[in-house]
Amino acid sequence: MPLDPVAPAAAVGGGGPSVRPRNVTMREVAERLGVSIKTVSNVLNERPNVGPATRERVQQAIRELNYRPQVGAQQMRTGTTGLITLAIPSLAGTYFSELAQAFADEAQRRRRSIMLHSTAAGREEEASVLSGFTRVLGDGVVFNPLQIGEDVVAGLDRTIQPTVFIGEHLEETGLPAGSDYVRTDNASAAEDATRHLLDLGRTHVVYLGALDVVEAQQAHSTSRLRLCGFHRAIAEAGLGEGVVQTVPTWTQEGGLGAVQTLMREHPETDGIVCGNDDLARGVLLGLRGLGIDVPGQVSVIGHDNILESPFTTPPLTTIDPDKQALAATVLDLLIERIGGYDGPPRVVEAPYRLVVRGSAG
């Protein structure tokens, strides 16, 4: 019979049954110090009505006894769990994995925990988020819808739990009660990226990243919004609509294949605005394979400022949507909702900036 992985060392090889360590209770912490359970609770919940000396004694006892509050007990005591569900399309993409880490970091600063929920299974899985899953998970939800229609969200009278939507797939009006929306102006960001290449003197600038899939046809999809910003900058410069190169996916592989096609069909290209940094990494690799100098012959710019962007060859110029600021804003709004705020839906715009590096300096 395999050993119980959490059995105490004294039980191993002792001939008796293994015993799981018993969880220390809040009462035991209080009795050790000769204070009330309410005092320990006040320290755990960071309430101000505890003196500094008492607070330090309680915190020391918690550390020594290795006390860990139980979620169920906390929920009965305070009505909350300290858990927030982050529902995002996938963890496979670089941007979403970094975004999840940003939320985890910001939640920890607020003494909360993030519970990840992938909606990669599709529309039905996203719909389950809006209907509260099969059961309520955590105190509130951060939700990045990708495949459900805007009409589905607009048709809700109220979200099941306090909810903050993120992403670009919603109208700013018609949000359901109990929710807020934090977005980045992707169209303006792509316009700034395109204008940067034009200001460098590039005259044959291409947008590489149009998706030929159903999701991309939504008016407020990321792909469509960034393409719209590209068209605006090109038109403003008097260059017509500009060349658009489609891709099968927003991945490094997608960028590699697309740039090979692009340079074969449009060898005059001297600037490329990529839908995201993963595409741009593939573009840089493809151009290098074709013997095309970056940025001497072709300038390249991405979007998302992922961790690998400064380490490409050459380092990638990109739009930084400030994932940490986005997460902080979202959690501030959501925690207000969890705390009882029930005002009308709020729409907040998160910041972005252009980060200039070697690929388009």
TrEMBL record:
Chain ranges of the HTH lacI-type domain:
24-78
UniProt KW keywords = DNA-binding, Transcription, Transcription regulation
MF-aspect GO terms? DNA-binding transcription factor activity; transcription cis-regulatory region binding
Question: What is the name of the protein in this document?
Answer: LacI family transcriptional regulator
